[in-house]
Write a structure and sequence with these properties.
GTP Cyclohydrolase I, domain 2; 5 strands
């Protein structure tokens, strides 16, 4: 199987996801990365966008999922994005990372991130993880 990859990096949206009422009321910034894997060789040789993933369409899809739907958990948000990409585009596997730079942690952190990997054959892939990445930034609501 060919392992070509198309990546959309650091898509930024303002949305109202979270467990706490204040997150749902005030909203906050969310950042999304998507890696889409498939065999893009034929499209590359033909130069035909209809044979590959139109990344402008993927951006619009992610924007709709992030900005128009409601999720308590970034894990659920990442999964919804991954499921939609797999259902709508000629990819074998997708990895989605969702970052929440201002997660209410009660202390300094760069962001909280969830990464999921899903395949067209179904299910999670090894290496899916959700984690807190602590750095110099200030976590705030």
């Amino acid at each position: 199987m060919q392992a070509d990859r198309i990546t959309l990096k650091n898509l930024v949206f303002y949305a109202y996801h979270g467990v706490f009422a204040a997150e749902k009321e005030l909203g906050q910034r969310f950042e999304v990365d998507i890696d889409m894997y498939g065999d893009f060789q034929t499209a590359a040789r033909a130069g035909d966008i209809d044979m590959t993933v139109n990344y402008a369409d993927v951006y619009a899809l992610v924007k709709e999922v992030v900005e128009e739907r409601e999720f308590d958990l970034i894990e659920a948000l990442a999964t919804a994005i991954g499921d939609e990409v797999l259902a709508g585009y000629p990819v074998n596997r997708v990895t989605v990372r969702v970052r929440k730079p201002h997660a209410p942690l009660g202390g300094p952190a760069d962001y909280v991130e969830c990464e999921i990997s899903r395949s067209a054959s179904g299910g999670a892939q090894p290496g899916s993880a959700c984690e807190d990445d602590v750095g110099e930034g200030e976590a705030e609501l």
